[in-house]
Amino acid sequence: MHHIVKCESNYRPDVQSFHPDPNSPNGREESYGLVQIHLPSHPSVSLEQATDIEFALDFLASNVKNGKQRMWTCGR
């Protein structure tokens, strides 16, 4: 988990992905927060939740526990 957080956001809970996406409103991938939750892939997660440290770490822990760490580029 430590590696994923450091790699994805460098511990910044307020960051948005820098990856380009011409289909998104501001031209960047819609991934947000400490663990860069991709909102289009997780429609039940709000922007507020994605940028909340406690929610993001719980989200990451739950997914890592279930063997889904590969959904993060840094978890591959």
Description:
Strands 1-2 form a two-stranded antiparallel ribbon. It is globular. With 76 residues, the protein is mostly helical. The relative contact order is 0.21. The chain is 33% helix and 5% strand. The longest helix is centred in the last third of the chain and has 13 residues. A hairpin with a 4-residue loop joins β1 and β2. It is built from three helices and two strands. The model has no long low-confidence stretch (mean pLDDT 94). The N and C termini lie close together (12 Å).
Provide a concise account of the structure shown.
By secondary structure, the protein is mainly α. A two-stranded antiparallel sheet has the order 1-2. The protein has helices at 2-9, 47-50, 53-65, and strands at residues 31-32, 37-38.
Layout of helices and strands:
Elements: H1 2-9, E1 31-32, E2 37-38, H2 47-50, H3 53-65
Antiparallel strand pairs: 1-2
Structural category: mainly alpha
Distance between the termini: 12 Å
Q: In what order do the strands lie side by side in the largest sheet?
A: 1-2
SS elements, strand count:
2
Q: How many distinct helices?
A: 3
Rounded to the nearest angstrom, the radius of gyration is 11 Å
Average per-residue pLDDT, rounded, comes to 94
Unreliable runs, pLDDT <50, ≥5 residues?
none
Binned strand content: 5-15%
Residue share in helices? 25-40%
Order of helices and strands: HEEHH
Overall shape: it is globular
Major sheet size, sense and barrel closure: 2 strands, antiparallel
